Amino acid sequence: MTARSWRTAVVYGVVCSVTLSLAVAGTTKRRHQHGAHVHGTATLNIAIEERTATIEFISPAESVIGFEHQATSAADQNRQAMALDLLRNKIGSMVVFDPALGCSFSPTKVDVMQQDKEHAEVHSTFAVSCHTPLAGSKLHFGFAKIFPAIQTVNVQLVAATQQVGMSIKQDKGELEVPR
Hints:
The chain has helices at about 5-25, 60-65, 75-95, 145; strands spanning about 35, 35-40, 40-50, 50-60, 95, 105-115, 120-130, 140, 150-160, 165-170, 175. By secondary structure, the protein is of the alpha+beta class. The protein has one domain (about 5-175). A 6-stranded mixed sheet has the order 6-7-4-3-9-10, sandwiched between helices. Strands 5-8-11 form a 3-stranded antiparallel sheet. The relative contact order is 0.20.
């Protein structure tokens, strides 16, 4: 394992453990909740290293697909496939880097994880490659424009020098990538 891939693995591990800690700590104060998720609220974890990033997006399936039960009918399977394709193809419109950075997004995983018969989450991971280093750039969001049921996105961003986080409501707000 190279030093760079080791750092990326460590950064991603920190993001995941912080997110899990925040999810566990906040479960007693959430409303409209089933298990470990809240309808209308998604989680976005971003690990940045120079010109690359790994993005993890997790959301209740209800907020992306419109339902959480297992897609057994042809209509539900079609609706689910269309929603996941929209996520795959529009992630760059939901996690918006400055166009001057020349970033491209590649989905590495986009799945529905069925928790039980009536509850599911969308789990996705994307690799981002940019022509210019990301440090100091601003990140904007457009989740509610693509998936209107997503009202809040809890963002955690880890870069080489620090970790930052915030809750984005109705796509309002921006996050600066640490230098």
